[in-house]
Every structure is written in C-alpha cells, then in structure tokens.
Amino acid sequence: MVAGDIPTDLDELTPEWVTRVLRENGSLRNAAVNRVESEVLGPGRGFTGRVARLRLGYDSAENGAPRSLIAKLPADDAGVRTQLNALGLYARESGFYTEIAAVPGLPVPRPFCVRFDPNTGTGLLLLEDLDQARPGNHVGGCSDEDAYLAVSRLASFQSAWWEHPALGGMTWLAPLDPDGFQVTLQTLVPTVLEKFGDVMPERLQILAGRLADNGAWYMRRRANPPRTIVHGDFRLDNLLFGTSGPEATLTIIDWQVPFLGLGIADVAYFAASCLGKEQRRAIEGQMIGIYHSTLLANGVDGYTLDRCLEDYRFATLTALARLITSGALLDFSSERGRELVLAAVHRIDAILVDHNAGDLLPG
Questions:
Q1: Residues 6 or more apart in contact with residue 340 via CB below 8 angstroms
Q2: What confidence tens digit (pLDDT) does each residue in 37-58 have?
Q3: What is the value of pTM for the model shown?
C-alpha cells in the first residue's frame, strides 16, 4: 500500500498525472495521455466512495494502452470517510489489489494504480474498465443460471485460498476485534431502526437487537476454520457477467470488506440479499450443492456437505449484520438506495425465518 502522491478529487486526475502512473506500471511506453474525461457512475451504487469512468485520449497510438479506466476514491464526506477508514474498508481494498489481484487468472479487474494513506483514509484505485460486461442488478435480481455461475466462480476463487499459509501474513485481512464489533453493532442498531424501522418487520428488529448483543460470539464463529478469503459483499451490484454458455465469465469487484473466515458466508449473503423469496427457496439447495462440489473439484478436502449446510445456516446472519452496519453508516436516500433497502429487508427477513437463524444465537 502506497501513500504519497494521492489525488483527492477527479479534477486532479490530469493527463500528466495519469500518463506518469501508466508509465510507472508499464502500461505506456511512448505515448502520452492528452485527454481525461470523467463520468461519475451509478447513483445509489457507490455508497462507500466515489466511482467514475475515465475516458482517455493519447497523443499517439500505442498497443495495449487502456482507452478507459475506473477510478475509485473514498467518500467525499469527511465524517463518513473517517468512520469507514476506522473500520478498515479502504485498507482492505488497497491490500487486496496490492497483494492478491495481480495474480493471473483471478476473476477481478486488473489494477493499474493502488495508493492509500491509512492515517487520513485518502486513497485511489485505477482499475480495468470492463465496460463490455453485463452488470448485475441487486434490486432486479438475476436468473437461476447467473446465480449458479456466481457461486461456482466464487468457489473456484475461494478454493485457491482455502487454508492457504500466505493468508496469515496479510494483516489487512485480520478480523475486527469481536468485542469491539459487538459494541459497534449495539451502537448502530438504534440508528438503523430509526432510519428503516418503518419497513422492517418487528421480528427482524428484535433479531437485530439480539444479534448486536451477541456480536462478539458472531464474529468468533464467523472466523472459525476452515478459512479462506471471503468477499464480504458478494451481491449482484458487485458482479460483472461476461460471455455465456460453458465458457461463461464473471468478474468480482468492490473488495472493501474481505475477511478470513467461512467461505459459504458469501453464498448465504448473496442468497439473502439478491434473490426473491420464492426463487431462493427453489434454487437454494442447488446453489449450495454447486458451491460445495466446485470446492471439492478444486482440491478442497475434509469439508463435508453437512458441515457446509450447517455453516450456511449460521452465515445467513451475515446479511443481517451487513444490514445493520451499512444501513446505519451509509446514505441510502437516493431512489435506488431506498429500493435496495426495501428489497434487502424483505429478502433477509425471509431467509432468517426459513432457517430459524435466530435459534442459533446464545441466550
């Protein structure tokens, strides 16, 4: 993770600056950028920061020079940025793109620039622009085939890092302090209820309070082995679908909340937040089966289907924990933000009821 020269606004991404960065990483040799046009992307999508597409022009043609890039900067609001930096979101994404994303073959965008200052929370990512891919839609949902593809590609990625010895040295993946997380949840529950209590069923409000009071237990259980890299926000808005058929591709973006823990947590969160109740009930078993069989096919040993199902039931609580933290800290006041919350509340409530997840909580 590199601090130093970090632009804090899109206007600072000048042709000269972008040229220097692209030459430093070997993407440019002779040509120079002479035009940068920025387009802010997705109201109701970039909740934790600012995301823009940079369209680039050059003074001469050069093979391999990117025609566009995706720029990610932290939240413009200083208070939000400070809170999210304290939770480690920006450090985690910088760490991921510095230490993991450069490995060939991973289903993630290529990083062109990764800069981050942990003291201030300022940072910048310049990423490959996959503008030809089909973006997922968290609110609108997806086809059964897209859901199966998502969990299959996820399992392929996680199997490569399953109990990998290198994970212990990645300090940016360290879990949050369980006791501190419990205090955070207890602090945030009143805020999320104030903001969204009018659309949250009473049983979900009660369960949110119970989860907060057992936040330390939840964090310790989530970090149990077998451990791999968990995306932490594996939902359709963070998935880009490429070709279809047997060679179908998927790219996973937005690596701000990865952690070491139970990989099935990503599957449970995807099912809880992105699939309507009836669709989830119809394909849930198949999704888990595909995820588990893909792990085995990629060399994971000793993880039984029964254990996978047990972990999945527990991991449905992950969706509620995310609803509490995101709902309280982030701004969902846009039209799409409100739609996302409404969809998430009803889907999360349904999966927690179906799996009697509240019965797992101590006390």
A1: 44, 138, 139, 332
A2: 999 986 544 457 789 999 999 9
A3: 0.89
Q: Please name the residue ranges forming H helices in the chain.
A: 15-24, 78-86, 89-99, 144-160, 178-196, 202-213, 215-222, 264-274, 277-297, 305-329, 335-354
pLDDT in tens, 183-232: 999 999 999 999 999 999 999 999 999 999 999 999 999 999 999 999 99
Neighbours of 265 (CB within 10 A): 25
- For residues 226 and 162, the answer to whether their CB atoms sit within 8 Å is yes
Q: Which two tokens stand for residue 117?
A: 């200052």
Q: Could you please state the CATH topology (level 3) that the domain comprising 134-360 is classified under.
A: Aminoglycoside 3'-phosphotransferase; Chain: A, domain 2 (3.90.1200)
Domain 10-128 CATH assignment equals 3.30.70: no
Which is nearest to 48 in space by CA: 140, 131, 139, 123? 123
